[in-house]
Amino acid sequence: MAGRVIIFPTDTVYGIGTKIRDLDGIERIYQIKHRPKEKPLACLCASLEQIKEIAEVDMVSEKLIQKFLPGGFTLILKSKDEIKNLIGYPTIGVRIPKHELAIKILEENGPMLTTSVNESGSVPLNEYDEIVKEYAGLVDKIYNTTTESMNKPSTVVLVSDGVVKILREGPVSKEEIEEFLKL
């Protein structure tokens, strides 16, 4: 179904998402969140294989993926041409959540463009009842879980030509990343 948008829990915060190739769904997310088009959506994937379908993965990126994912760690990588043309950005943030339900959803649907559940610029909502109250009529499905989310956005790193730049610290610290890269 084109334009399908769902809300589901992850290991960091609840996400609102749609299949990566669903242009109607992508448009709906921007409308629901009142999000400026200049702010790209991140992509959640179930596996390294799914990441390789949508982004260029060099040796440094693959080592970081194998070390820090699944978990609260987002890599910004060069988009594959098809994805760049689809989303309009040369890079894409990718992550594999460490959350059983999220992985199941991603295995069934493929890579999904996502963002936190909130009005753009506001604090992310992470309580199921609050999310249902605010978004029940706006999305196609809201998943619940008994597993707790961390309520902390992921660490974000940019990987370009083998060079790593930390853009936001989250569950994985700058020190952990720097220590790992020294190996």
Automatic annotation (TrEMBL):
Main location: cytoplasm
GO cellular component: cytoplasm
Swiss-Prot/TrEMBL GO biological process terms: regulation of translational fidelity; tRNA processing
Pfam families documented for this protein: Sua5_yciO_yrdC (PF01300)
GO MF annotations, alphabetized: ATP binding; double-stranded RNA binding; L-threonylcarbamoyladenylate synthase; tRNA binding
SUPFAM superfamilies found in the cross-reference section: YrdC/RibB
Coiled coil: none
Location of this chain's protein in the cell: Cytoplasm
Signal peptide: none
Top-level class of the enzyme under EC nomenclature: transferase
Reactions that this protein is recorded to catalyse: L-threonine + hydrogencarbonate + ATP = L-threonylcarbamoyladenylate + diphosphate + H2O
EC number: 2.7.7.87
Domain YrdC-like: 1-172
Gene3D superfamilies: DHBP synthase
Keywords associated with the record: ATP-binding, Cytoplasm, Nucleotide-binding, Nucleotidyltransferase, Transferase, tRNA processing
NCBIfam families listed in its UniProt record: L-threonylcarbamoyladenylate synthase
Family: Belongs to the SUA5 family.
PANTHER family: SUA5 (PTHR17490), THREONYLCARBAMOYL-AMP SYNTHASE (PTHR17490:SF16)
Protein name per UniProt: L-threonylcarbamoyladenylate synthase
Organism expressing this protein natively: Anaeroplasma bactoclasticum
